[in-house]
Amino acid sequence: MGVEEGMDCQHNQITLYTAQTDEVVANLLAHGHHYVKLEYISRKYAEVSAVFLQAYAWYTEHAQRIVPKPQQAESAVWSFCDIKYLERHPGHQILKLSVPLASAVFFRMSDWNKILNLNYIGESAAEEALFAEKLARYGIRYAGDIHTTPFYPHLKKECRDSWQNLFRYDQKVKATGSCLYPDMQAGLWQVKKEWIVAKVGD
């Protein structure tokens, strides 16, 4: 699938794909919507959940300024423009969705992975290299260490401020109707039953 496909400009809808457990899909079809609870994340990531919860809390705080968050949503449902970025696991189903552009927050998976690893998101590779050099001068090999100790508050702030770059593509995706990059990801505060176009594989 090309990154330009899946856009219906006339109705401001975009095609996205999400993988959900059989249980979630059953509840979604029964109740008409699905919201993420933080307990799902704690269960999924187990021993490393503290790091992930820190990243997810940051995302929730800032993404709701772009698309207001319903009270029932404790975190985001992840979806992708390109189905190839979804992991296929037993007991999961892949849903093809047609989602209103205004309901999604768009960003690159590669940028989100930097946040999950508590790394810096630069405007360019050169900017990221400069930050890595700065860490090296302090004897820091892994950027995540500045988040887990109290010794580098200025570096921690600089790193966390850079995470705003996660959202740099959102307005352009919505203005152009193009996913821009193959690894474009979208955060949704909910999945509605009426957004489901098909279960992939059915």
Overview of the molecule:
- The chain has 8 helices and 9 strands.
- The chain has helices at 22-31, 38-45, 49-63, 109-116, 125-137, 145-148, 153-162, 170-176; strands spanning 7-8, 13-21, 33-34, 77-80, 92-100, 104-108, 184-188, 191-192, 196-200.
- Strands 1-2-5-9 form a 4-stranded antiparallel sheet. The chain has a 3-stranded antiparallel sheet with strand order 4-7-6. A two-stranded antiparallel sheet has the order 3-8.
- Strand 1 (7-8) and strand 2 (13-21) form a beta hairpin.
- Helix 2 runs antiparallel to helix 3 (49-63).
- The longest helix is centred in the first third of the chain and has 15 residues, at 49-63.
- The radius of gyration is 18 Å and the shape is globular.
- Residues 1-10 have low confidence and may be disordered.
Keywords:
single chain; 202 residues; alpha+beta; four-stranded antiparallel sheet; three-stranded antiparallel sheet; 8 helices; 21% strand; globular; disordered N terminus
Outline, from the CA principal axes? globular
What portion of residues is helical?
Answer: 25-40%
Which residue ranges are poorly predicted, with pLDDT under 50 across at least 5 consecutive positions?
Answer: 1-10
Radius of gyration: 18 Å
Q: Helix count? A: 8
**Widest sheet: strand order?**
1-2-5-9
The pLDDT mean sits at: 89
